[in-house]
Write a structure and sequence with these properties.
single chain, mainly alpha, 4 helices, 79% helix, 0% strand, flat, transport, Small_drug/metabolite_transptr, cell membrane
Amino acid sequence: MAWIYLVIAGILEVAWAYSMKLSEGFSRPWPTALTLVLMIASFGLLSISMRSLPLGTAYTIWTGIGAVGAFVVGILVLGEQASLMRIAAGALIVCGIVLMKRSSPH
């Protein structure tokens, strides 16, 4: 279950990053409130997953999911640039996430 909680926490990290962008510097109330709720949920699930997963593994995978997810949302939803170098960087992050998961004894 810890891995499931961790993946959901990572997805929620992407969601709160996107809602933070929509909040326009916390100047819009509803996106700001959504950001805070999603942050709390993401951190809560991360903390639950850390009960049985090593800190380094859990935190690295959580931030990796958030980084790659935000990158994908930026390209697909916000129309950000999808250069070869940015895509290669995202692929390297995914490789790091996979290696971290495979190196974990859990």
